[in-house]
């Protein structure tokens, strides 16, 4: 899917070299907090071991790569933005998680919109990608979404998630690798086919557009951060089940469902 991702991640792509940290909080233990001031940021041997062990606990294997660690550092440098993204995610995770889990795809994919749209369902990129999952019109239509002058279902959280699931399934079946599947979600399957010939992403990544070669490690970095947010001093929403209330009896010529989140927020879906 050829598109631009959110402004925040676009900034990430400019920082492919090892960044410096202005200020980051890295808990060493439950009772001790280490404050890292401005300067080169490195992980301790204990933290390196922690990352390695956590990376093995995912449905999508997270490789031990320096590119991923650089994005962990970068996100920690931008924790305020990251936490605002997680606050938005709190509204939509209860809607998209059941769809992804029902599909049989790894549940970690619920965090892909962090990179795609910053969990903003109304996001539109300069290249015309739109919605939580940043579909361009042609791919959206190919995967069953209506996109025309009257209706744009890319902005429908549930329908776009169902389309994203179908697309991600096809990409994984096509490449047999989550790194290549994610790269293809970003720049398109033809881009990945012609530039990598299906060879390991980490070997062929330099043949891909710079946005794509950074997109994959950025997503893996998010997975590590949400796995143990306390470790990194960030706040991540707990994924709770949404409750649906059928109100079709109270509507005229249209079925409406009100999704009530545990925090009391109501999201209206008209079918």
Q: Could you give a quick summary of the protein structure above?
A:
By secondary structure, the chain is α+β, with helices and mostly antiparallel strands.
Q: Please describe the biggest sheet, giving its number of strands, its sense, and whether it closes into a barrel.
A: 3 strands, antiparallel
Number of strands: 5
CATH names the topology of the largest domain as: Lysozyme
- Principal-axes geometry comes out as globular
- What is the number of domains? 2
Taking Cα atoms only, what radius of gyration do you get, to the nearest Å?
Answer: 19 Å
Which stretches are low in confidence, meaning pLDDT under 50 for 5 or more residues running? 2-41, 244-263
With helices defined by DSSP (H or I, 4 residues minimum), what is the helix count? 12
SSE pattern, N- to C-terminal: HEEHHHHHHHHHHHEEE
Level-1 CATH class name of the largest domain: Mainly Alpha
Per CATH, which architecture of the largest domain?
Orthogonal Bundle
From the N-terminal CA to the C-terminal CA, the straight-line distance is 27 Å
Provide a descriptive summary of the structure in words:
By secondary structure, the protein is of the alpha+beta class. The chain has two domains: 234 residues, Lysozyme, CATH 1.10.530; 31 residues, no CATH class. The protein has twelve helices and five strands. It has a three-stranded antiparallel β-sheet, with no helix packed on it. A hairpin with a 2-residue loop joins strand 1 and strand 2. Helix 3 crosses helix 11. The chain is globular. The protein starts with 6 loop residues before the first helix and ends with a strand.
């Amino acid at each position: 899917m050829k598109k631009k991702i959110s402004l925040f991640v676009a900034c990430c792509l400019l920082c492919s070299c090892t960044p410096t940290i202005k200020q980051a909080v890295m808990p060493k233990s439950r009772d001790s907090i280490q404050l890292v001031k401005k300067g080169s940021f490195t992980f301790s041997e204990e933290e390196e071991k922690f990352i390695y062990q956590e990376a093995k606990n995912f449905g999508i294997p997270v490789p031990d790569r320096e590119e991923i660690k650089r994005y962990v550092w970068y996100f920690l440098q931008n924790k305020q933005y990251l936490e605002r993204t997680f606050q938005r995610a709190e509204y939509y995770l209860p809607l998209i998680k059941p769809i992804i889990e029902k599909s049989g795809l790894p549940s970690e994919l619920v965090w892909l919109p962090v990179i795609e749209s910053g969990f903003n369902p109304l996001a539109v990129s300069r290249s015309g990608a739109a919605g939580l999952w940043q579909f361009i019109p042609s791919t959206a239509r190919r995967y069953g979404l209506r996109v025309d002058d009257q209706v744009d279902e890319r902005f429908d959280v549930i329908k776009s998630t169902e389309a994203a699931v179908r697309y991600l399934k096809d990409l994984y079946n096509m490449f047999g690798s989550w790194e290549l599947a994610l790269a293809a979600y970003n720049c398109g399957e033809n881009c990945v086919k012609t530039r990598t010939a299906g060879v390991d992403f980490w070997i062929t990544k330099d043949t891909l557009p710079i946005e794509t070669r950074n997109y994959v490690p950025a997503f893996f970095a998010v997975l590590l951060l949400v796995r143990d947010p306390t470790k990194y001093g960030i706040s991540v929403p707990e994924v709770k089940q949404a409750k649906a209330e059928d109100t079709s009896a109270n509507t005229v010529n249209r079925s409406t469902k009100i999704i009530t989140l545990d925090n009391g927020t109501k999201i209206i879906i008209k079918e």
